[in-house]
Amino acid sequence: xxxxTLPAALWMAVMGRPIVALLYQHGRFHAFDTQQSAGALxxxxxxxxxxxxxxxxxxxxxxxxxxxxxxQASFVSVALNLALNLLFIGPLRPLGLxxxxxxxxxxxxxxxxxxxxxxxxxxxxxxxxxRRIATTLVRVGLASVVAAGGCALGLGLLGDRWQHGLIxxxxxVLGGAAFALAVGYGMMKLxxxxxxETVEALIRGMLRRVTGRA
Length: 214
Known about the structure:
81% helix; 0% strand; globular; 214 residues; mainly alpha; 8 helices
């Protein structure tokens, strides 16, 4: 899950403005609205890998017949989310996060929920190759930073020249996606990310089903 969501989160954080402009900057939705929405998207991206991992961990507990731990973690998460929301629009309002603070609160809550469930699961089943997972996370993170960094550099060189209609935003988003996929995949191959073979096998299986080949 981290192999898929970490690169996606960093890419969306960097490409937030073109993505939002492509999807929403039409009619009464103007460039300022795009900028504000992209700021919230960046904050949501912080918690995207954790949010996706929580889904897997929750299903793991249900498969084990343990429903108490996910419920406990969800209660803590709801309380934390409420507290952070009030904190960011109250005492921490001078930080200037505004609506982005609410998105950040959601991401931080997802991370705390992920940590809770991970600790509960380790207590329930023992060690589950945490060191190997951490190694993969570092390698995937390195590949994601390189790919997202290239996209950020390209956007910086373009400046605001892409903001001249739907076609410009579409070309930037597609170009950024193609670049990030190529560079990210190459870096993961170079750093020998083991889980990449699983993803490749899934893609090959999907292609066989689509093409009808055995």
